[in-house]
Sequence to fold (188 residues):
Amino acid sequence: MFHLPESSYKALAQFKNVPPIINPTNIQTITDINYLSDLENTYNIFLERNLQLLDLHNIIEDLLDIRDTISIQICRINRAKQIYEYNKSQQEQNRSIQAHTGLNLTKNQKDQGYILCQNSLKEYKCGCKTIQYQKPIQNQSQKQITVIQKHQYCFKHLHYLKTKCILDEELTKINMELSSITRKENEV
Ligand SMILES: [Zn+2]
Fold:
Protein backbone atom coordinates (compact mmCIF):
# COMPACT_ATOMS: atom_id res chain seq x y z
CA MET A 1 0.00 0.00 0.00
CA PHE A 2 1.08 3.52 -0.79
CA HIS A 3 1.07 5.86 2.15
CA LEU A 4 2.08 9.41 2.66
CA PRO A 5 3.73 10.08 6.02
CA GLU A 6 1.24 10.21 8.90
CA SER A 7 1.91 13.93 9.31
CA SER A 8 0.86 14.57 5.70
CA TYR A 9 -2.53 12.97 6.28
CA LYS A 10 -2.98 15.07 9.39
CA ALA A 11 -2.14 18.19 7.43
CA LEU A 12 -4.43 17.22 4.55
CA ALA A 13 -7.31 16.77 6.97
CA GLN A 14 -7.40 20.55 7.31
CA PHE A 15 -8.12 21.02 3.61
CA LYS A 16 -11.42 20.89 1.82
CA ASN A 17 -12.05 18.75 -1.29
CA VAL A 18 -8.86 16.72 -0.98
CA PRO A 19 -8.45 14.55 -4.09
CA PRO A 20 -8.05 10.79 -3.60
CA ILE A 21 -4.48 9.86 -2.64
CA ILE A 22 -3.52 7.12 -5.09
CA ASN A 23 -0.30 5.17 -5.38
CA PRO A 24 1.47 6.38 -8.56
CA THR A 25 2.22 2.72 -9.42
CA ASN A 26 -1.50 1.99 -9.39
CA ILE A 27 -2.21 4.99 -11.62
CA GLN A 28 -0.11 3.34 -14.32
CA THR A 29 -2.60 0.48 -14.48
CA ILE A 30 -5.71 2.67 -14.91
CA THR A 31 -6.98 2.74 -18.50
CA ASP A 32 -10.23 4.69 -18.06
CA ILE A 33 -9.33 8.00 -19.71
CA ASN A 34 -12.46 9.81 -18.48
CA TYR A 35 -11.74 8.85 -14.91
CA LEU A 36 -8.12 9.95 -15.28
CA SER A 37 -9.08 13.29 -16.85
CA ASP A 38 -11.50 14.01 -14.00
CA LEU A 39 -8.80 13.06 -11.51
CA GLU A 40 -6.23 15.29 -13.19
CA ASN A 41 -8.71 18.13 -13.17
CA THR A 42 -9.50 17.64 -9.48
CA TYR A 43 -5.79 17.66 -8.66
CA ASN A 44 -5.12 20.77 -10.71
CA ILE A 45 -7.93 22.70 -9.04
CA PHE A 46 -6.88 21.55 -5.57
CA LEU A 47 -3.20 22.34 -6.16
CA GLU A 48 -3.93 25.73 -7.65
CA ARG A 49 -6.18 26.70 -4.78
CA ASN A 50 -3.90 25.54 -1.96
CA LEU A 51 -0.42 25.81 -3.41
CA GLN A 52 1.11 27.95 -0.68
CA LEU A 53 -0.46 26.14 2.28
CA LEU A 54 0.48 22.74 0.85
CA ASP A 55 4.04 23.96 0.44
CA LEU A 56 4.05 25.14 4.02
CA HIS A 57 3.07 21.65 5.21
CA ASN A 58 5.68 19.99 2.97
CA ILE A 59 3.13 17.89 1.09
CA ILE A 60 3.27 19.67 -2.23
CA GLU A 61 5.93 17.34 -3.69
CA ASP A 62 3.95 14.16 -3.07
CA LEU A 63 0.78 15.61 -4.54
CA LEU A 64 2.61 16.93 -7.59
CA ASP A 65 4.11 13.47 -8.10
CA ILE A 66 0.65 11.94 -8.14
CA ARG A 67 -0.69 14.65 -10.48
CA ASP A 68 2.25 14.23 -12.88
CA THR A 69 1.80 10.47 -12.95
CA ILE A 70 -1.87 10.99 -13.86
CA SER A 71 -0.93 13.40 -16.68
CA ILE A 72 1.71 11.02 -18.03
CA GLN A 73 -0.75 8.12 -17.94
CA ILE A 74 -3.27 10.18 -19.95
CA CYS A 75 -0.58 10.92 -22.57
CA ARG A 76 0.39 7.25 -22.65
CA ILE A 77 -3.20 6.16 -23.35
CA ASN A 78 -3.65 8.80 -26.06
CA ARG A 79 -0.42 7.76 -27.70
CA ALA A 80 -1.43 4.10 -27.67
CA LYS A 81 -4.73 5.10 -29.26
CA GLN A 82 -2.94 7.06 -31.98
CA ILE A 83 -0.58 4.18 -32.73
CA TYR A 84 -3.53 1.79 -32.90
CA GLU A 85 -5.38 4.06 -35.34
CA TYR A 86 -2.25 4.48 -37.43
CA ASN A 87 -1.65 0.73 -37.65
CA LYS A 88 -5.28 0.15 -38.54
CA SER A 89 -5.17 2.66 -41.40
CA GLN A 90 -1.88 1.16 -42.61
CA GLN A 91 -3.45 -2.30 -42.70
CA GLU A 92 -6.47 -1.01 -44.59
CA GLN A 93 -4.21 0.69 -47.10
CA ASN A 94 -2.14 -2.47 -47.59
CA ARG A 95 -5.29 -4.50 -48.09
CA SER A 96 -6.64 -2.12 -50.72
CA ILE A 97 -3.29 -2.03 -52.53
CA GLN A 98 -3.08 -5.81 -52.49
CA ALA A 99 -6.58 -6.03 -53.93
CA HIS A 100 -5.57 -3.81 -56.84
CA THR A 101 -2.19 -5.33 -57.54
CA GLY A 102 -1.03 -8.83 -58.40
CA LEU A 103 -1.62 -10.89 -61.49
CA ASN A 104 -4.69 -12.81 -60.36
CA LEU A 105 -8.26 -11.77 -60.98
CA THR A 106 -10.42 -10.90 -58.01
CA LYS A 107 -13.31 -13.24 -57.28
CA ASN A 108 -15.72 -10.68 -58.63
CA GLN A 109 -13.80 -10.41 -61.91
CA LYS A 110 -13.67 -14.21 -62.26
CA ASP A 111 -17.42 -14.39 -61.71
CA GLN A 112 -17.89 -11.87 -64.51
CA GLY A 113 -16.27 -14.35 -66.90
CA TYR A 114 -12.90 -12.78 -67.64
CA ILE A 115 -10.35 -15.14 -69.14
CA LEU A 116 -6.61 -14.91 -69.63
CA CYS A 117 -5.36 -13.43 -72.92
CA GLN A 118 -2.82 -15.76 -74.48
CA ASN A 119 0.79 -14.52 -74.43
CA SER A 120 -0.17 -11.31 -72.65
CA LEU A 121 2.29 -11.69 -69.79
CA LYS A 122 4.94 -9.00 -69.96
CA GLU A 123 7.95 -8.72 -67.70
CA TYR A 124 9.95 -5.57 -67.16
CA LYS A 125 13.56 -5.04 -66.21
CA CYS A 126 12.64 -3.62 -62.81
CA GLY A 127 10.71 -6.78 -61.90
CA CYS A 128 7.19 -5.49 -62.59
CA LYS A 129 4.88 -7.80 -64.52
CA THR A 130 1.63 -7.18 -66.35
CA ILE A 131 -0.95 -9.55 -67.76
CA GLN A 132 -4.26 -9.10 -69.54
CA TYR A 133 -7.64 -10.73 -69.21
CA GLN A 134 -10.62 -10.28 -71.45
CA LYS A 135 -14.30 -10.95 -71.38
CA PRO A 136 -15.45 -12.98 -74.40
CA ILE A 137 -18.23 -11.42 -76.47
CA GLN A 138 -21.46 -12.86 -75.21
CA ASN A 139 -24.01 -11.28 -77.51
CA GLN A 140 -24.16 -9.42 -80.81
CA SER A 141 -24.96 -6.03 -79.32
CA GLN A 142 -21.64 -6.00 -77.49
CA LYS A 143 -19.15 -4.50 -79.92
CA GLN A 144 -16.09 -3.98 -77.81
CA ILE A 145 -14.06 -6.51 -75.91
CA THR A 146 -13.47 -5.38 -72.36
CA VAL A 147 -9.95 -5.93 -71.16
CA ILE A 148 -8.50 -5.88 -67.67
CA GLN A 149 -4.82 -5.29 -67.19
CA LYS A 150 -3.31 -6.62 -63.98
CA HIS A 151 -0.02 -5.34 -62.65
CA GLN A 152 2.32 -6.99 -60.21
CA TYR A 153 4.69 -4.37 -58.87
CA CYS A 154 8.34 -4.78 -58.06
CA PHE A 155 9.50 -3.63 -54.62
CA LYS A 156 10.53 -0.16 -55.76
CA HIS A 157 7.36 0.60 -57.71
CA LEU A 158 5.12 -0.84 -54.98
CA HIS A 159 6.74 1.64 -52.62
CA TYR A 160 5.98 4.45 -55.08
CA LEU A 161 2.40 3.27 -55.41
CA LYS A 162 1.93 3.34 -51.62
CA THR A 163 3.47 6.81 -51.47
CA LYS A 164 1.13 7.95 -54.23
CA CYS A 165 -1.90 6.67 -52.27
CA ILE A 166 -0.79 8.61 -49.19
CA LEU A 167 -0.18 11.79 -51.20
CA ASP A 168 -3.49 11.43 -53.05
CA GLU A 169 -5.25 11.20 -49.70
CA GLU A 170 -3.41 14.29 -48.44
CA LEU A 171 -4.23 16.16 -51.64
CA THR A 172 -7.92 15.34 -51.26
CA LYS A 173 -7.84 16.76 -47.72
CA ILE A 174 -5.99 19.89 -48.89
CA ASN A 175 -8.41 20.46 -51.77
CA MET A 176 -11.38 20.11 -49.43
CA GLU A 177 -9.81 22.53 -46.96
CA LEU A 178 -9.07 25.08 -49.69
CA SER A 179 -12.48 24.87 -51.28
CA SER A 180 -14.18 25.31 -47.92
CA ILE A 181 -12.67 28.78 -47.38
CA THR A 182 -15.32 30.55 -49.40
CA ARG A 183 -18.29 28.52 -48.19
CA LYS A 184 -21.27 30.53 -47.01
CA GLU A 185 -21.02 29.41 -43.37
CA ASN A 186 -17.42 30.59 -43.17
CA GLU A 187 -18.28 34.19 -43.91
CA VAL A 188 -17.67 36.63 -41.10
ZN1 LIG B 1 8.79 -2.05 -61.29
